Amino acid sequence: MRYADIAVVGGGLAGSTAAAMLGRAGVSAVMIDPHAKYPPDLRSEKISTNQLELLRKTGLVDAALRAGRHDRQIWTARFGYLIDKKPSEQFGILYDTMVNAIRGEIPTNVDTIEAKVTEISTGPGRQTLTLSTGEQISARLVILSSGLNIGLLHQLGIDRQVISKCHSITVGFDIAPVGRPAFDFPALTYFSERPSDRSAYLTLFPVPEGMRANLFVYRDMEDPWLREMRDAPEDALHRLYPRLRTFTGEFRITNKLRIRPADLYVSTGHRQAGVVLVGDAFSTSCPSAGTGTDKVFTDVERLCNAYIPAWLATDGMGADKIGAFYDDPAKVACDAWSNATAYHFRSVSIGESLPWQARRWARFLGRRGQGLLRRLRAQVRGEAEAA
Ligand SMILES: Cc1cc2nc3c(=O)[nH]c(=O)nc-3n(C[C@H](O)[C@H](O)[C@H](O)COP(=O)(O)OP(=O)(O)OC[C@H]3O[C@@H](n4cnc5c(N)ncnc54)[C@H](O)[C@@H]3O)c2cc1C
Q: Whose C-alpha lies nearest to ligand 1, atom 12?
């Protein structure tokens, strides 16, 4: 039996961030994950300005940014029309690169164990984990950061309430211009043209490996469009966004598409002694709203900075202690915002009713107004400097 104060189950973004923060704070912890290196997977592939701020609070921002690529400016467009060129603090970084960079920050005082947790038993005193290797771990607290895997949660009587099945589908791929060394834009967000596109937007952004694309659609997995996209992706994309060429020119998709549906769910029965759920293990987000990483960093930052030090300073790990984390105002606000944004994005992209059409146009005109103002200001500044 191995002993630690904290056992982190799952070394994705949430678990690795928690393990690095706890290790740096000198807390006795172990992290268990079946993969020594997080494998390539389609998940969050960039860090937005807001997420950068949250990541700063974890103390891990430098490691993540070193492995990513800063885009500096994003062009936004719709109907083949350039709406804005905004300065940007966004960093493109493939998910496995980001997780592995954060894992690289886990200090040596945290044991990382390459195994799967197969059994879990919890209570107000100590918790016991059994691993696929047969080893057992005893800890005062288990952080369950096992993502979408429901197995261990079921052992604890925790369930998932699916609130929106296949809320959206993300398509991820690498893209390159044909006949030119680079695209004209540093990064581009191209919004859907009509609700019948059943799409939110396409985002093209630089990662250290080249130009990456994420396309977000609201369809079901049996939609024939997905087969067209798999068979002839360039043609399917041109049919979806006929005026995208204005910005991209001819392009080719240079690798196999990854297509991932996302369900929105929340956990039920999770307020228990000895175990706390973070990241996707607690609840999911809609990829097109881009709020999943905000949720991960908010969960882990609040848990490791505000709660764990106090919990370890007193005896026991009762459900009342754990409940304080789930009621944390910043966490509650982040989860509510993420959920509301998921529904808002869907409705503003594909809602056919008059109010949603009006909002779509208001959004377009608002962004266009901002773009014009920005260009005007830049022009005035340029003239003032020249004078
Ligand atoms: C397609 C897609 C696109 C997305 N795009 C965005 C985006 O653009 N912006 C954004 O902010 N968010 C996005 N998200 C959401 C974001 O990526 C997730 O919220 C985040 O990755 C969740 O991290 P996690 O650590 O909770 O889970 P994961 O990264 O899934 O980690 C779970 C870990 O637990 C391990 N594990 C599972 N079971 C066990 C076990 N029994 N024992 C030990 N280990 C176990 C797994 O091996 C894995 O390493 C996207 C999500 C998806 C699916």
A: 292
Q: Is the CB of 267 under 6 A from ligand 1?
A: no
In a domain, residue 377? The reply is no
Q: Is the CB of 279 under 6 A from ligand 1?
A: yes
Q: How far apart are CA 322 and CA 155, in angstroms?
A: 18
pLDDT, tens only, 217-255:
999 999 999 999 999 999 999 999 999 999 999 999 999
**Which ligand 1 atom is at minimum distance from the Cα of 295?**
19
pLDDT of the residue at 267: 96
Number of domains in the chain: 2
Do 118 and 21 lie in one domain? The reply is yes
Is 21 within 8 Å of 59 (Cβ atoms)?
yes
- Ligand 1 centroid, distance to 321 Cα (angstroms): 26
Using CA atoms, how far residue 71 sits from 107, 184, 185, 190, 236, in Å, is 30, 13, 10, 16, 27
Is 68 in contact with 91 (CB distance < 8 Å)? yes
Q: Specify the ligand 1 atom closest to the Cα of 115.
A: 43
Q: What is the pLDDT of residues 44-76, one digit of tens each?
A: 999 998 899 999 999 999 998 999 999 999 999
Tens digit of each residue's pLDDT (9 = 90 or more) over 70-87: 999 999 999 899 999 999
- φ/ψ of 378, rounded to 5, equals -65, -40
| Residue 283: strand, helix, or coil | strand
Shared domain for 108 and 52, answered yes or no, is yes
Q: Using the 3D structure, point to which of 261, 281, 302 is the last residue of a domain.
A: 261
Q: Is 353 contained in some domain? A: no
Domain holding 297, by residue range, is: 2-69+93-162+264-345
pTM for this one?
0.95
